[in-house]
């Protein structure tokens, strides 16, 4: 039986490589050439850069509004709490992945879905074993929804930033029209089928985003601060939205196992000063100052993206907005690519082989891109969209699946009571945050939609 499982595992290698690309979120480091069928291993610095890049984006720019919803003190505490849980679960995933690989004696490190599936299969509890065959599909669906949710958020960010840029030239255009204007650019990004064409966009995105963030920090730290800064929360109903935004900013857990499998030495990833710990510290050092200084600068007037708070009359404002639009647009291509590959692969298994695969590929990409546009136009509120995605899929990937897998595996490998206690606390936090977040955000989205309909 164990031999059959091993053979089945080896036969799934090609499918796993596709899932791995989805889990990574950022696919540019998968595009390196291979030698004798094996991917080249990455060093510490390259892996660290990919890890940090996968954890920064629109969520970081929304941290100012997260501090507005929760106040300076409470938001900082929850941000640190979520950060600690995220780091813990990332270590849990790497440990489980290594144990599963050793148990199955496979050459290829298991992906996120494979790790969760096999942890459930190896459990002594029937409740875990009974759902082990379907849990991988559930993980996969969450990753896919997260990727497409990220793409929708990117579209909203590009559109709202472009709307602000046009306003500086006295062109007042509603968000739906701006969404329509951005469609050709996004369609081009979505149509890139080869990684060698997408990979250069990664460097361009990094440069543009870093330039924009540095300039925003300069704005936030210069001049006088706002007088209406709160140190505690204002409404209980706003706390779930704050939690969802924080979770959205830690959506990079899907990167952990692919990068862990690719680094040339496991210890460089999981050690005290390894990629995981150092990278998460760097991400935290970007999120906290940017969010706190942004809220301290603009107070209750802080927007869903700090770029929307930049002054109209400053000569660098247009430059910053263009840089951020460029950076996020390039990131869209990287986030969209793996989702398109997986959807095409699944459809080909059902309806294929296709006579004209290129035509089918482009058609599928256009349809998926239109779905992300439909989601962005249906919920034209950047903060609510990010919080909803964070409350649903990001919570599941970052907290629920790693903790459940750890508990399932511990029935086979007895662990400490403290680790089991941490897993239970993680699951409890995830359930409370997800349920309240879904309710609060869907209610807020409905109210915002009703208000826009009545005003229109």
What would your notes on this structure say?
Residues 43-440 form the Amino acid transporter transmembrane domain. This is Proton-coupled amino acid transporter 4. One of its GO terms (molecular function) is L-amino acid transmembrane transporter activity. The chain is mainly alpha-helical. The protein has one domain (40-450): Amino acid/polyamine transporter I. The protein is built from 19 helices and two strands. The protein has helices at residues 2-11, 13-24, 44-53, 58-61, 63-70, 72-104, 112-121, 126-130, 132-167, 175-190, 195-221, 239-248, 256-262, 266-270, 275-298, 317-351, 357-378, 382-410, 417-455; strands spanning 34-35, 38-39. The chain has a two-stranded antiparallel sheet with strand order 1-2. Helix 5 (63-70) packs antiparallel against helix 12, helix 5 (63-70) crosses helix 15 (275-298) and helix 6 (72-104) packs across helix 18. The chain starts with a helix and ends with a helix. The model is unreliable at 1-39 (pLDDT under 50).
Give me some keywords for this one.
1% strand, Amino acid/polyamine transporter I, membrane, two-stranded antiparallel sheet, mainly alpha, 2 strands, transmembrane helix, transmembrane, Proton-coupled amino acid transporter 4, 75% helix, AA_transpt_TM, globular
Shape: globular
The residue ranges in which pLDDT falls below 50 over 5 or more consecutive positions are 1-39
Cα distance, first to last residue?
A: 64 Å
Total of domains: 1
Order of helices and strands: HHEEHHHHHHHHHHHHHHHHH
State the assembly state of the protein chains.
single chain
Output the structural class.
Answer: mainly alpha
Helix content: over 70%
Number of strands: 2
Output the radius of gyration.
22 Å
Give the neighbour order of strands across the main sheet.
1-2
CATH class reads Mainly Alpha
- CATH structural architecture: Up-down Bundle
Strand content: under 5%
Mean pLDDT: 79
CATH fold name: Amino acid/polyamine transporter I
The tally of helices reads: 19
Q: CATH superfamily name?
A: Amino acid/polyamine transporter I
Biggest sheet architecture: 2 strands, antiparallel
């Amino acid at each position: 039986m164990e031999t059959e499982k091993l053979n089945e595992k080896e036969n799934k290698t090609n499918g796993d490589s596709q899932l791995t690309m989805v889990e990574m979120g950022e696919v540019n480091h998968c595009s390196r050439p291979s030698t004798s069928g094996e991917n080249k291993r990455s060093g510490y610095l390259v892996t660290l850069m990919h890890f940090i890049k996968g954890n920064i984006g629109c969520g970081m720019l929304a941290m100012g509004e997260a501090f507005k919803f929760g106040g300076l003190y409470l938001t900082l505490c929850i941000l640190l709490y979520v950060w600690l849980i995220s780091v813990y679960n990332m270590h849990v995933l790497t440990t489980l992945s290594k144990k599963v690989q050793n148990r199955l004696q496979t050459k290829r490190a298991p992906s996120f879905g494979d790790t969760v599936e096999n942890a459930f299969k190896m459990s002594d509890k029937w409740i875990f074993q009974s759902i082990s065959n379907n849990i991988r599909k559930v993980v996969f669906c969450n990753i896919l929804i997260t990727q497409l949710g990220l793409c929708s958020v990117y579209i909203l960010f590009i559109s709202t930033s472009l709307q602000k840029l046009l306003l500086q030239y006295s062109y007042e255009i509603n968000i739906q029209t701006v969404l329509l204007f951005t469609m050709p650019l996004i369609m081009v990004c979505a149509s890139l089928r080869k990684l060698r064409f997408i990979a250069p966009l990664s460097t361009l995105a990094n440069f543009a985003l870093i330039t924009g963030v540095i300039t925003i920090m300069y704005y936030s730290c210069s001049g006088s601060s706002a007088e209406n800064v709160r140190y505690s929360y204002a409404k209980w109903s706003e706390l779930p939205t704050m939690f969802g935004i924080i979770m959205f900013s830690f959506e990079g857990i899907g990167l952990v196992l692919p990068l862990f499998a690719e680094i040339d030495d496991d210890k460089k990833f999981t050690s005290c000063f390894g990629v995981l710990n150092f990278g998460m510290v760097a991400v935290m050092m970007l999120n906290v100052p940017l969010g706190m200084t942004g809220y301290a600068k603009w107070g209750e007037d802080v927007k869903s993206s700090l770029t929307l708070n930049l002054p109209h009359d400053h000569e660098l404002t247009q430059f910053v907005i263009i840089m951020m639009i460029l950076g996020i647009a390039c990131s869209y291509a990287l986030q969209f690519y793996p989702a398109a590959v997986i959807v095409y692969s699944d459809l080909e298994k059902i309806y294929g082989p296709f006579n004209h695969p290129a035509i089918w590929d482009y058609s599928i990409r256009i349809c998926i891109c239109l779905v992300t546009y439909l989601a962005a136009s249906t919920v034209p509120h950047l903060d609510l969209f990010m919080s909803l995605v964070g409350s649903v899929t990001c919570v599941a990937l970052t907290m629920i699946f790693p903790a459940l897998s750890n508990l399932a595996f511990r029935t086979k490998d007895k662990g400490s009571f403290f680790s089991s206690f941490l897993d239970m606390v993680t699951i409890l936090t995830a359930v409370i945050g997800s349920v309240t977040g879904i309710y609060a955000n869907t209610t807020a989205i409905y109210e915002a939609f009703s208000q826009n309909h009545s005003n229109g």
